[in-house]
Amino acid sequence: MQHKCKVTAIDKKIYPELQAKYCADPNSGACPCYNVGDEFIFERYGNEDHFWHMGLNSLVKTKSADSSDTAGGKIIPHCSEAWDAVSRYVYTALQGGSIMRGWMNDERVMIACCSDGTRPVIFRIERIDYKVLYIDGLHCEKCEERIEKALRIFPEVTEVVFRKDTGFTEVFLDGSISDSALKEAVESCGAYEVKKID
What's the CATH number for 129-197? Predict the structure, then answer.
């Protein structure tokens, strides 16, 4: 089983009275690094390791017209205030651990905010579980459709992603499925062989 971590900016707050009283610029305004709805996917598999680069290139969705000025994009890593708040949960998720057992209603999820006292950003951090299948014999979209249909018979499978850039298939799960069941489902579709499952 492998794990990713999805981080979503779910809210931004601003306290103008505190900015007016304490900030060098009394009109600092809301945080410029994040937009409500920004989504980040942290991976640590294959050639990807977003954690050790403070989330650089982890931005997958933004409302910003120019993602180059958004934290987690191709140029700017996550803001240090935000990174201090979320990094321990991101690391726990990437290792497959319980992010916050007993506090949240789902131990795979945590809500946290950055430590800026005048304009905090609130984040949802979520562990995503998946398995990586290395399948020989995939040649076209019809092959992918056949295999996805076979894998979707399991109610635990939430998504199937064929990554042509890496040569492996990601099967996202909400629950547990044995490797042998996944292998059997794929290989029952025809001339396909599952070489390895991580």
Answer: 3.30.70.100
